[in-house]
Design brief:
It contains 13 helices and eleven strands. The protein has helices at 5-14, 16-19, 29-41, 57-68, 85-90, 108-120, 145-158, 181-184, 213-222, 230-241, 245-270, 295-304, 343-353, and strands at residues 51-54, 74-79, 95-102, 105-106, 128-131, 161-165, 190-195, 207-210, 284-288, 310-311, 333-337. Helix 4 packs across helix 9 (213-222) and helix 11 (245-270) packs parallel to helix 13 (343-353). The chain binds pyridoxal-5'-phosphate (PLP).
Length: 368
Amino acid sequence: MPDLTGEAEIALRRYRSETLQYAPLLGLAPLREWICNYLQVDGVKVSPEQIIIVNGAKHGLDLICRLLLDPGDCVAVTAPTYFTGIPIIRSYGVEFIEVPQDEEGMSVDTLHHQIERRKRENRPAPKLIYDIPDFHNPTGITMSKRRRLQLVELAASLGVAIVEDSPYREIRFTGAQVPSLKSLDTNDSVFQLGTFSKLMAPGLRIGWIAATQENIERIGRLKSDGGTCPLTQRIIYEYCAAGKLASHLDLVRKRYQEHRDTMIASLTSFTPKMRFKAPDGGYYIWARLPREMDSNLFAKQALARGVELFSGEQFFVGKFADYPVNSAAGSGYVRLSFSFASPAQIEAGIARLMDLLPNDRAVSRDKM
Ligand SMILES: Cc1ncc(COP(=O)(O)O)c(C=O)c1O
């Protein structure tokens, strides 16, 4: 976590009337400008009028849903997807289309076929496609450029909006950056969510939406929270404008890479029956349990041993759906997070999982 005491002091001493008053509806002007420059470096051309500051990416997702969705609409998500996104989207009374992923990310061909089939059945096409193209939560997959192009083309041809939720984009350890969906979009289909949660600290609760000016203004009219906290916005701006973010991110990448490498080494030596693909960045490893194992039970037993991990089932909309879905796949997976725990804790934690797996040294499944 960055030390923000100096910036907090500047914010409260020099900008008292700004930071303790209601904020401008769309956010502090200098922060919106800073975000534009930051996005520009990443190939996204937007002006400050195309940015709204929100209380984190989740709030941004909620506002986009409020803008676009009506009960009975349909939303496409990957299977699995970010579990906190599911109830947000679902609260708008929509139906989900689950789209499988492979190592290149969301299968756009499958999505296209699903939409064609729905058309033949007189069912609506999705109004919105939600995805996490960089170091996906929970799978860690990064979508290839080829797929990204395919996705923005499909969305443009059908007039469907895309929500690009990419909080882990900067946390790349290996491999080359892939252009964002927003940077490839020539049709204004993409609403890009950004957040300082993973860049700086989640408790700050500051994020943004980048979209067309018209949509940003409409979202501004729907944002009924009295404005996102100006004190926090000013603190973040002072930190970023002083050029401190780059070195902080270098440190974050270095630390988390060590964490990831420790987790991979521990999984390889202690739990070789858990299968996974090493992610190039982000926070997560998506691991497959041996075939007959139940991931809910596994997560419970891990917790009883002091190891917190998430059962794969939580990342599928089927878990929350009241209609038939194809989500059984989630039950054999768990999501392991390497960001918060120290390398020593990661090693000790994975070693404790060893006893839960059916191998020569372990307790058998019947005894678990
Ligand atoms: C896919 C995804 N979106 C958004 C967030 C965070 O959102 P916020 O900016 O609201 O903290 C996370 C954090 O876990 C995430 O994994």
